[in-house]
Amino acid sequence: MRKPSFTTVMLILGLVFLYLPMLILVIYSFNASRLVTVWAGFSGHWYLELLRDPQILSAVWTSLRIAFFSASMAVCLGTLAAFVMVRFGRFRGKTALSSMITAPLVMPEVITGLSLLLLFVHMAQLIGWPADRGMVTIWIAHTTFCSAYVAVVVSSRLREVDLSLEEAAMDLGAPPVKTFFQITLPVIAPALAAGWLLAFTLSLDDLVIASFVSGPGATTLPMVVFSSVRLGVSPKINALATLIILAVSLATFLAWYFMRRSEAKRRQALKMQAQEA
Amino acid sequence: MTQPMTLADTQAQARPTSETTPSSGKSSRVQQETLMEIRRVSKRFDEVLAVDDVNLTIRRGEIFALLGGSGSGKSTLLRMLAGFEKPSEGQILLEGQDISRTPPYERAINMMFQSYALFPHMTVAENIAFGLKQDKLPKAEIRERVAEMLKLVHMEGYAKRKPHQLSGGQRQRVALARSLAKRPRLLLLDEPMGALDKKLRTEMQLEVVEILERVGVTCIMVTHDQEEAMTMADRVAIMSDGWIVQVGSPMDVYESPANRMVAEFVGTVNLFAGEIVVDEADHCVIDSPELGRRIRIDHGISTPADERGVWVAVRPEKTLMSRERPAGDFNWAAGTVEDIAYLGGLSVYFVRTGQGHLVKVSLANTTRRSERPSWGDAVYIHWDERSAVVLRD
Predict the structure, then answer these.
(1) pLDDT in tens, A166-175
(2) Domains with residue ranges and CATH for chain A
(3) pLDDT for residue A147 is more than 90
(4) Cα–Cα distance for residue pair B120/B168, rounded to 1 Å
(5) pLDDT band at B282 (very low <50, low <70, confident <90, very high)
(6) CA of A183, closest CA in chain B: separation in Å?
(7) Which residues form the ABC transmembrane type-1 domain (chain A) (predicted)?
(8) From CA B287, how far away is CA B271, in angstroms rounded?
(9) Which of B113, B135, B165 is nearest residue A164 as measured by Cβ atoms?
(10) Distance (Å) from the alpha carbon of B32 to chain A's nearest alpha carbon
(11) CA–CA separation, B101 vs B332, rounded Å?
(12) Nearest CA to CA, how far is B115 from chain A (Å)?
């Protein structure tokens, strides 16, 4: 057998380093034992346990709802911000605006969470809203930092879009607002989808900010996982993690598949045309 | 079936009155009536003057080319006509109405972009219909007009295609159809052939002109390619540093350039610095140390007495080459062939004169493999006294 080259070995080592922990986690989710680290035979028992646990299920539902609303709101705000950063000509304070929009990317989460908590507490005292913290406050908090990510993703795409597309639309009689909705938005739609997905996962993943601004009524999935791990890791969490990995891989695979299919369609159309010519 | 009344029919009824500068056959449809007037228009970007006090009159029905190098201000001027830039000073009048402050979406002017700017998420038919939908035309009329436009640019079979499924030439046709669909008063073309390869370019130049003529639309195009401007346009304006240096028919601009810049920009030229020594009504004589001999020209140029320094310009194809010494005392020099560029249809000879000046001579290759001067041969270059042009600065 041929000796594998140095680069191949490094590649394999790198992949093992990245994916071995996840593989172990998946394997142990089928462990029959109550102890996480001791293998006692194969069993799907923890998956059933997981489905019977109302606390985890309601946390999943809460997290998904928060992630959905935060991502949607972040896409709206982030796109507006990106549009101002890229399409508006130079104006006073443009540099300040763009650095302030992107600042939450590098801001430590602890600080973001703490400052938002202070804000909500003071607002509750001053105007009586929000009366108690919960889903709405998490939603607002997640929207603030997710908007920054969306703005970065969308603005990089918007910079690539040929400005003459929008000029052509205006030249053909479409006022600026109509141009934005009929031309700009459809053209940058892939970036909006990517930004939405990014915001969704960030919101789903966030523990620190959510812990600061959440109240007694709203417990997100990371909070449940984190607190249950402190009491001792339950194999149920392994099962949950496996399901999450499965869902993410499936989504990635589907996205790849549809992209490949549309690319193949495009190539075929070009080929057909070459034959006609 | 009754023939629908197209724009081409309506415009064709209006007959031209007269033409001052006969150039090519294209100008027969041009009328004297003014369509657009550009009055003392300037554009400043942060104190940099991109367009400097431009005055132009565009006649109804003509194809007008703005020709200039990069940074000459031609694109900025075009963008002001389209409405994407507001002039810092001056007025733009379309059919007598000041449109300098009108936004692009309210102007009866359409533009074909250099990148074509076809909307990638719409089909060919939807692209062409876009402008018509903005006007809220009835659906049936839009459909009819789109079909008419597709037929005009010979793209009937491609209505359902997306832009990325089209070749470069086809995209250009769609872009042209889209900009003509609203029947604009004025069509703007921004580097219309810029995105095409050379072979396709020559083909499309003639086809685009043919389409524009059939529709009868007035057209202003911007280009840096002089061949393109001369092939397509009835009149050409040469721009440099935001100025319009010369306006005229392609022949005017080539044969009677206004100054040295135009002569050098449009085609190639041999230039000789000299000083006027004789200036009569029917001829003048210029002393040129660069040629080592005097130059005689068959017309007077009425110079002010204090401005004697001029340039004499002779085009390479009007510069002749012979092995025998030319007769007479004017307009020739001895030299050796330094280099030959064989271009197929013609050959360009680079002749180094005794004074060290490099002169270009182009000869049409009318016969195959004929006896021609070769590298290092001693030759004489000369020209007719009617061939040279006197230029200032």
Answers:
(1) 999 999 999 9
(2) 60-241 (1.10.3720.10)
(3) yes
(4) 14
(5) confident
(6) 7
(7) 60-255
(8) 13
(9) B113
(10) 27
(11) 57
(12) 8
Q: Which of A157, A166, A171, A275 to mutate to test the interface with B (most CBs of B within 10 A)?
A: A171
Residue B388 burial (C-beta neighbours within 10 Å; 0-12, 13-18, 19+): buried
- The alpha carbons of chain B give a radius of gyration, in whole angstroms, of 25
d(CA B372, CA B353): 18
The rounded distance, in Å, linking the Cα atoms of B235 and B221 is 11
> Whole-prediction pTM value?
0.81
φ, ψ for residue B40 (rounded to 5)? 45, 50
B9 pLDDT above the threshold of 80: no
Chain A residues within an 8 Å CB radius of B166: 273
Q: Residue B20 and residue B144: Cα distance in Å, rounded?
A: 39
> Hey, are the CB atoms on B119 and A183 less than 8 Å from each other?
yes
**Record: contact A172-B103, CB cut-off 8 A:** no
Q: Quick count: other Cβ atoms within 10 Å of Cβ A169?
A: 25
Euclidean distance between CA atoms A171 and B107, whole angstroms: 8
Q: In which order are the strands placed within the sheet that holds B109-112?
A: B109-112, B186-190, B218-223, B63-68, B235-240, B243-248
Place of tokens 């002089």: B226
Residues from chain A contacting residue B120 (CB–CB below 8 Å): 165, 187
The token duo for A69 is: 């609303």
Q: Please check whether residue A130 is in contact with residue A215, taking contact to mean a CB–CB distance below 8 angstroms.
A: no
Take residue B161 and report the two structure tokens written for it. 């295609």
With tokens 């719409």, the residue in question is: B122
Task: Name the DSSP class of B157.
Answer: G
At B150, which amino acid appears? L
CA distance B153 to A113: 61
Could you tell me which residue, A90 or B241, shows the higher pLDDT?
A: B241
Tokens of A242: 């496996």
Whole-number CA gyration radius for chain A: 24
Local confidence band at A273 (pLDDT 50, 70, 90 cut-offs): low
Block residue for tokens 């499309």 = B204
Residue type at A208? V
Measured between beta carbons, the chain A residues lying within 8 angstroms of B135 are 173
Domains of chain B: 24-260 (3.40.50.300), 268-391 (2.40.50.140)
Q: Quick check: bond before A130 cis, omega within 30?
A: yes
Instruction: Give the residue among B50, B47, B57, B39 at the shortest CA–CA distance from B235.
Output: B57
Any alpha helices (H) in chain B, and if so which ranges? 7-13, 74-82, 124-134, 139-152, 168-180, 198-215, 226-232, 250-255, 260-265
- pLDDT of A100 above 60: yes
B110 vs A contacts (CB less than 8 Å): 171-172
